[in-house]
Amino acid sequence: MFGHDWTSKLVVGLSLATLATSNPVAAPQATTTITPSGPPCTHSATNRACWRNGFNITTDYETSLGTPPGITRVYNLVITNVSSFSPDGVSKPAMLINVGLPAVTCSMLTSFEGTFPGPLITADWGDFLQINVHNNLPQNGTSIHWHGMRQLGTNDQDGVNGVTECPIPPNHVKSYTFRATQYGTSWYHSHFSAQYGNGVLGPMQINGPASANYDIDLGPYVISDWYRTTADEAASIAEIVTNGAPPASSNVLFNGTNINPSGSGGQYNRVTLTPGRKHRLRLINTSVENHFSVSLVGHNFTVISTDMVAIEPLVASSLFMAVGQRYDVIIESNQNVDSYWFNATLVGGLCGVSVNTAPAAIFSYQGAPAAGVPSDPGVPLTTTPCIDNTGFVPIVPRQAPQSEFAASQDVLDIQLETTTVNSTAVFRWEINGESNDVKWDKPTLEYVRDGDTSYPPEANVIILDEPDVWTFWVVQNNAIIPHPIHLHGHDFLLLGTSDTDANPTEPVIFNEASDIGGLNFNNPTRRDVAMLPPFGWLVIAWKTDNPGAWLVHCHIAWHVSQDLSVQFLEMRDQIPKAMDLGQLEPQCSDWEAYYETSYWKIADSGL
Ligand SMILES: *[C@@H]1O[C@H](CO)[C@@H](O)[C@H](O)[C@H]1NC(C)=O
Ligand SMILES: *[C@@H]1O[C@H](CO)[C@@H](O)[C@H](O)[C@H]1NC(C)=O
Ligand SMILES: *[C@@H]1O[C@H](CO)[C@@H](O)[C@H](O)[C@H]1NC(C)=O
Ligand SMILES: *[C@@H]1O[C@H](CO)[C@@H](O)[C@H](O)[C@H]1NC(C)=O
Ligand SMILES: *[C@@H]1O[C@H](CO)[C@@H](O)[C@H](O)[C@H]1NC(C)=O
Ligand SMILES: *[C@@H]1O[C@H](CO)[C@@H](O)[C@H](O)[C@H]1NC(C)=O
Ligand SMILES: *[C@@H]1O[C@H](CO)[C@@H](O)[C@H](O)[C@H]1NC(C)=O
Ligand SMILES: *[C@@H]1O[C@H](CO)[C@@H](O)[C@H](O)[C@H]1NC(C)=O
Ligand SMILES: [Cu+2]
Fold first, then answer.
1. CA 469: distance to chain centroid?
2. 579-602 pLDDT tens trace
3. Strands laid side by side in the 319-321 sheet
4. What is the DSSP letter of 120?
């Protein structure tokens, strides 16, 4: 529909002006004329609940008429290998997006204007995005996943190599096209093994209504762990059993910068607050492994969104954030004109450790001394276990039918295994006794295109053919290591989790008879990443309304690399009707041709 152009070679001399810019053009698809149904109103600082054309915070964005008309926005992302990048004063090799050079060279860049996180992709609710991803890495494939985007009817744009496409080979382009049917804050990242840990990620902001008023939108705030090794090295260190725990991160970056905790160099990230105003801050945890609790000394957060689900405003003094999770919060600058620490407190232990023991950024009121470092250290957070905040109430409600739970619940049983590769003992994860190792050159959608149902066991495919039914999953953790569980293609209802205060020393198994009473079927927290407690369980539910192959995985890069995922193959017969699976080619044959002689080979699950 946008004239897919993914076979074309990298556009030589691609003008800088087109990089990371949005070029709104009239949308040919600007679909059905929707008569405004709500009262006329104007989106403003004092009426954020209103959007436009009759759409507002109460609109059910998952229904067919629940998306406002939109325009097409075009972005170009060029991924490049760089030898030296120093976001905190310490140099390391990285893979960055749109480093500010014409995309004409395929050799390794040695000078660049660093871009980490990658450029912000913004759109309005209802807009169409066309994002041309140019793989300028000489020796890696890539595929870019648009985290949290529902991809209704566009599973082939989900960017999961080995599931929804073959990887984009070096010197090739893929145009991803999909619609922003939801609003809020999210991010995009590579799904090619641990590649995103090298820097291939960036924020996404979909503008829409909000459940509370604010004056100033500060935009996304990307918080990420950072390693001196490359992600590929760190992943292979993390898998070796005798190494014990995965490597500690070297630092934690706020919007791409921080001081070097173990030496000199680098700079605190600084954010300016206007006195007496309400600021919206869009927190995104793009870590590879570290989980943190975030807080701003002397201030509360009013949470208005969990992932991309608007919620009844809720005040919190700190928020635990698992990898992949987002919270949109409002900060009211009602304290003395001064500078304040914005802390990401590491929970530690199995929830991730960093060489930087007190990562922080500085939020300063306008008028506070410019270079000042805050004097008030704040109150140390009491050690929390590695668990989610819950109890959020979505504005657009959902009820799951409790009567159907008993009959249709099923289990994803997660086990930690060790196996031997070249006489080295390594960690592997299994779900229901199978690992998920994808074949980059034979994505699951290719099986669907060919009507081939002989999915290999190591693709860990679970069939959900029946349309429009609720599906319930107990995710059971048989190890003491917590996992942020992420589902593609849906926001799930988080019906409940095991009692995490119990501090278990052995697995607490979900027991329907005794645990069902504690589940919330009536509009519980809804999001796309939830923390599976150590030795515990969580129960999630969603409705089969989106045909495609949807990955469920742990968002700790090391764990998904070590096979911790399954694929839900939803409404198989609808998939070829909803999208053109012919578009798998020629990318797949281009990938095969590249891979035959490629320098590096797959060394993990591929995800
Ligand atoms: C939102 O629109 C609906 C009609 O679609 C209307 O009934 C409701 O009052 C509006 N709510 C707000 C907060 O604007
Ligand atoms: C990046 O450059 C380094 C150094 O030349 C090379 O070893 C590595 O394979 C390159 N990576 C990719 C993905 O091209
Ligand atoms: C990707 O490139 C990195 C080096 O930059 C290398 O370590 C890794 O093995 C490569 N992976 C594949 C599958 O190409
Ligand atoms: C973080 O960086 C992005 C992109 O550069 C910017 O749009 C955003 O405003 C920054 N966030 C804050 C809180 O300063
Ligand atoms: C991000 O998630 C990781 C892993 O879940 C966690 O260790 C880290 O503390 C989180 N970061 C923040 C800022 O919450
Ligand atoms: C933060 O919220 C708590 C609980 O609602 C309240 O007691 C406290 O005064 C608030 N602090 C600030 C700085 O608003
Ligand atoms: C916040 O970070 C600063 C700087 O690292 C540190 O001194 C302070 O103790 C931290 N406060 C909290 C509450 O974590
Ligand atoms: C490890 O074993 C695989 C086959 O399982 C082989 O392809 C690879 O070359 C071996 N690597 C080393 C470093 O021996
Ligand atoms: Cu995990």
1. 26
2. 999 999 999 999 999 999 999 999
3. 270-273, 360-365, 339-346, 292-296, 319-321
4. P
Is the per-residue pLDDT at 30 higher than 70? no
What does the pLDDT look like over 326-363, one tens digit per residue? 999 999 999 999 999 999 988 766 777 888 989 999 99
pLDDT digits (tens, 9 = 90+) for 515-549: 999 999 999 999 999 999 999 999 999 999 999 99
Supply the residue whose CA is at minimum distance from atom 14 of ligand 4.
Answer: 271
Could you tell me the pLDDT band of residue 504, with boundaries at 50, 70 and 90? confident
Contacts of 601 (CB under 8 A, 6+ apart): none
| Residue in 216, 255, 294, 333 to alter for ligand 4 test, most ligand atoms within 8 A of Cβ | 255
Q: Does domain 402-596 have CATH number 2.60.40.420?
A: yes
Which residue is associated with the tokens 């000489």? 138
Cα–Cα distances in Å, from 48 out to 60, 282, 419, 607? 16, 15, 54, 38
| Ligand 3 center from residue 562 Cα (angstroms) | 16
Q: Does residue 122 surpass a pLDDT of 70?
A: yes
Q: Can you tell me the distance from the alpha carbon of 101 to that of 96, in angstroms, rounded to the nearest whole number?
A: 12
From the list 237, 268, 242, the residue with the least C-alpha distance to 255 is: 268
Reduced to 3 states, what is the DSSP secondary structure of residue 355? coil
Ligand 6, residues 315, 332, 379: which to mutate, most atoms within 8 A of Cβ? Answer: 315
Residues with CB under 6 A from ligand 3: 139-140, 232, 600, 602-603
Q: How far is the CA of 297 from the centre of ligand 5 (A)?
A: 19
Three-class DSSP category at 204: strand
Provide the mean pLDDT of the chain.
88
Please report the atom of ligand 5 found closest to the CA of residue 291.
6
Q: What is the dihedral of CA 512, 514, 517, 523, to 10 degrees?
A: -40
Which pLDDT belongs to residue 385? Answer: 65
339 CB within 6 A, ligand 7? no
Residues with CB under 6 A from ligand 4: 120, 218-221, 255, 271, 281
pLDDT band of residue 401 (cuts 50, 70, 90) is very high
